[in-house]
């Protein structure tokens, strides 16, 4: 199914071209449009209408099988999803060990507006039930711990309790996991990561099959005004055309490297859903198409972790992940509740054996 989608994606635009049109979409720079007389049915103004966004949203919608809206970052997409669904007095559930800016957004901005924010660890997310929550925000696999939430069971339970689910699908992309098919009301994602994939562009998107929710998110984007630039949209369009190749290579390499890393004496613990003994393994097989390209490594201490990252020539010491260049960082430096020697490793598109040689040599040197 994923292969068919990837093949179709490359020809979506081509099927509606007229003779002489460029195969690649043009970058349209426009704040004003020719709009005589009564507005309606055509582009009106650059904050609400943008042909280059539409080209990119066409690809994202195809991948999600749902209307998709483009945002200038993953956090802009997440903000849109939450501000479009919550009001004063509502209760919001967020993971206590997911991407930390979501908790910051909730605590610093939604809380003071009267939203009651509750945090729970990803492991045991369903404990305590979902009664009384207007919105349940799910991140699976969680970043950086790579723990999983059972999407089908959780989305059904939240719906049964009258709430909405928003699933952050950043770590897997629509090629690796399909939360809307598993019952989620909304998907949010940072396309800055693997979808962009070249460490040069920030974008994000929201997708939902609920027309009223989609309209509300669109309205939030138009009135709040946090909109993507046409060039950034175009760059994502270009990147999405190779996502299937990059994602497959990254996941296949991670699958090869994870057991080797786990067996290295300098590694105290390796977390990867593809490892048979991993706590996430069975659920990953049930709800994910691949095991992803992120690997969590616990090394002895902070110094070992920093040395590993610094001495490996094929690792960029950088925050963020999903790029063609393998990268790594010690997440405790941002205050994530992980061991000081915990390294989040993002496997890139380097051919796997030279990459393994470099990783092994850096670990051997610790
Ligand atoms: C990076 C990330 C985000 C935020 O995305 P930006 O594009 O940096 O705003 C949100 N969720 C997860 C899981 C992420 O990894």
TrEMBL record:
<dbReference type="InterPro" id="IPR000277">
    <property type="entry name" value="Cys/Met-Metab_PyrdxlP-dep_enz"/>
</dbReference>
<dbReference type="GO" id="GO:0005737">
    <property type="term" value="C:cytoplasm"/>
</dbReference>
<comment type="similarity">
    <text>Belongs to the trans-sulfuration enzymes family.</text>
</comment>
<dbReference type="GO" id="GO:0030170">
    <property type="term" value="F:pyridoxal phosphate binding"/>
</dbReference>
<dbReference type="GO" id="GO:0019343">
    <property type="term" value="P:cysteine biosynthetic process via cystathionine"/>
</dbReference>
<protein>
    <submittedName>
        <fullName>Cystathionine gamma-lyase</fullName>
    </submittedName>
</protein>
<dbReference type="GO" id="GO:0004123">
    <property type="term" value="F:cystathionine gamma-lyase activity"/>
</dbReference>
<dbReference type="GO" id="GO:0019346">
    <property type="term" value="P:transsulfuration"/>
</dbReference>
<dbReference type="Pfam" id="PF01053">
    <property type="entry name" value="Cys_Met_Meta_PP"/>
</dbReference>
<dbReference type="InterPro" id="IPR015422">
    <property type="entry name" value="PyrdxlP-dep_Trfase_small"/>
</dbReference>
<keyword id="KW-0456">Lyase</keyword>
<dbReference type="InterPro" id="IPR015421">
    <property type="entry name" value="PyrdxlP-dep_Trfase_major"/>
</dbReference>
<dbReference type="InterPro" id="IPR015424">
    <property type="entry name" value="PyrdxlP-dep_Trfase"/>
</dbReference>
<keyword id="KW-0663">Pyridoxal phosphate</keyword>
<feature type="modified residue" description="N6-(pyridoxal phosphate)lysine">
    <location>
        <position position="193"/>
    </location>
</feature>
């Amino acid at each position: 199914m994923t292969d068919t989608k990837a093949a179709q994606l490359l020809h979506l635009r081509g099927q509606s071209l007229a003779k002489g049109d460029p195969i690649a979409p043009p970058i349209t720079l426009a704040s004003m449009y020719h709009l005589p007389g009564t507005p309606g049915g055509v582009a009106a103004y650059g904050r609400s209408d943008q042909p280059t966004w539409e080209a990119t949203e066409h690809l994202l919608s195809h991948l999600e099988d749902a209307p998709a809206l483009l945002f200038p970052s993953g956090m802009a997409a997440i903000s849109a999803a939450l501000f479009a669904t919550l009001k004063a007095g509502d209760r919001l559930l967020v993971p206590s060990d997911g991407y930390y800016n979501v908790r910051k957004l909730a605590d610093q901005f939604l809380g003071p507006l009267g939203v009651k924010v509750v945090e729970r660890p990803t492991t045991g997310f369903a404990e305590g039930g979902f009664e009384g929550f207007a919105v349940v925000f799910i991140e699976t696999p969680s970043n950086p711990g790579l723990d999983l939430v059972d999407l089908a069971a959780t989305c059904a339970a939240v719906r049964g309790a009258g709430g909405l689910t928003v699933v952050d699908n950043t770590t897997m992309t629509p090629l690796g996991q399909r939360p809307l098919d598993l019952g989620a009301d909304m998907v949010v994602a940072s396309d800055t990561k693997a979808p962009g994939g070249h460490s040069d562009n920030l974008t994000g998107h929201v997708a939902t099959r609920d027309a009223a929710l989609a309209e509300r998110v669109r309205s939030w984007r138009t009135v709040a005004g946090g909109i993507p630039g046409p060039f950034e949209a175009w760059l994502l369009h270009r990147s999405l055309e190779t996502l299937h190749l990059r994602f497959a290579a990254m996941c296949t390499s991670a699958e090869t490297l994870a057991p080797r890393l786990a067996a290295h004496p300098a590694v105290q613990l390796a977390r990867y859903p593809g490892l048979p003994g991993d706590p996430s393994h069975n659920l990953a097989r049930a709800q994910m198409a691949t095991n992803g390209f992120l690997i969590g490594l616990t090394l002895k201490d902070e110094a070992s972790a920093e040395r590993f990252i610094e001495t490996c020539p094929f690792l960029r010491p950088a925050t963020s992940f999903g790029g063609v260049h393998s990268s790594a960082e010690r997440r405790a430096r941002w205050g994530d509740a992980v061991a000081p020697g915990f390294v989040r490793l993002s496997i890139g598109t380097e051919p796997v054996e030279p990459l393994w040689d470099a990783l092994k040599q850096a670990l051997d040197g610790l």
